């Protein structure tokens, strides 16, 4: 690789690392670009060479944190015995991540406010946790655990529930206790959703016990 390109990549990585640290400590609004370049050990010109503004840097920081969470959820679900267990294990991994300061501040607090809900939860990002959830629900549908036409609507509904559970962990007086409550509730919800009995096509009189 060209040395100049390597130096540019290293500078960009330094800025992102500084952004992760400062946005976690002080939040987006409480962090200045002066503090970022000082923490990164680079010039202001270097910052604006790689990023248009502070929001652009924040988006790169958000993606970096999101990528870590995605990898953790994917790794956790990969070892599960079946699709339902993989989905539940992945959700638990996400909730565990919500106990970490950088996830709580960058993904749950500042992400939707700075980037907007549409961008922060976009399917376009290959490391979006919602995309991983969608993949799992389509796999469940392929196995007959839920109707195929329900996979996409359930992706939105279930991710909304998971994200709000994460935010509840973020603002709770006792985050660990809230995480345990959320994990139990969401695990029970997913187990109920993925029951093969829900896909059974009943006849017109099968459930009529009055005849």
Q: SSE layout and pairings?
A:
Elements: H1 3-26, H2 33-40, H3 44-50, H4 54-78, H5 83-97, H6 101-115, H7 117-120, H8 129-142, H9 151-171, H10 175-193
Helix pairs in contact: 1-2, 1-4, 1-6, 4-5, 4-6, 5-8, 5-10, 6-9, 8-9, 9-10
Textual characterization of the structure:
The chain folds into 2 domains: 1-51, Arc Repressor Mutant, subunit A; 62-194, Orthogonal Bundle (Tetracycline Repressor, domain 2), CATH 1.10.357.10. Helix 1 (3-26) packs across helix 4, helix 1 (3-26) crosses helix 6 and helix 4 crosses helix 6. By secondary structure, it is mostly helical. It has helices spanning 3-26, 33-40, 44-50, 54-78, 83-97, 101-115, 117-120, 129-142, 151-171, 175-193. 72% of the residues lie in helices and 0% in strands. It is elongated, with a radius of gyration of 21 Å. The termini are far apart.
Number of strands: 0
CATH class placement of the largest domain = Mainly Alpha
Q: Give the CATH topology of the largest domain.
A: Tetracycline Repressor, domain 2
> Can you tell me the overall shape?
elongated
Indicate the percent of residues in helices.
Answer: over 70%
Largest sheet: none
Average pLDDT, to the nearest integer? 88
